[in-house]
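Repro:
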Amino acid sequence: METMFTVGKIVNTHGVKGELKIVPTTDDPKRFKKLKEIYVERRELKRYNIEAVRFHKDFVLLKLEGIDDMNDAEILKGSTLKIDRKDSLPLKKDEYYISDLYDLGVYTEEDNRYLGDIVDIIYTGSNDVYVVKNPETKKEILLPAIKQVVKVVDIEAGKMTVHLLEGLEEL
């Protein structure tokens, strides 16, 4: 399991006082208001205290302690923003962090047959689709992330149990 999550990318500076323009990569950009610190990943990971957060259009404007002018801010352009897992938003029942789903072993509900591991997640408009690849046969199956298919997710055991609807698997 990842200990840090990426929550945004610094795409530009904003103004002359060191504010950073952020494209959020989190479901809830308002979460930035709850953070006291953030990690900036460039060549290395560096922790910064957050002085101020505000929102402009689809961007988050972030003022970090020690970044006091446009030149300081310019150096951080292109960096990613990360938070500690402990600072992440709490999950509701049957919600999981995407990073925890990768590499889960996927098994059928009916006969506990191993289908493969989750190697990718495709984001569609209606629901996510898990790409499950069997390392031995190299065969891939696309499984919609819907309740009719995904029956049990056990992150600690590294296992997902699924019900294969007709047509999901070619025999």
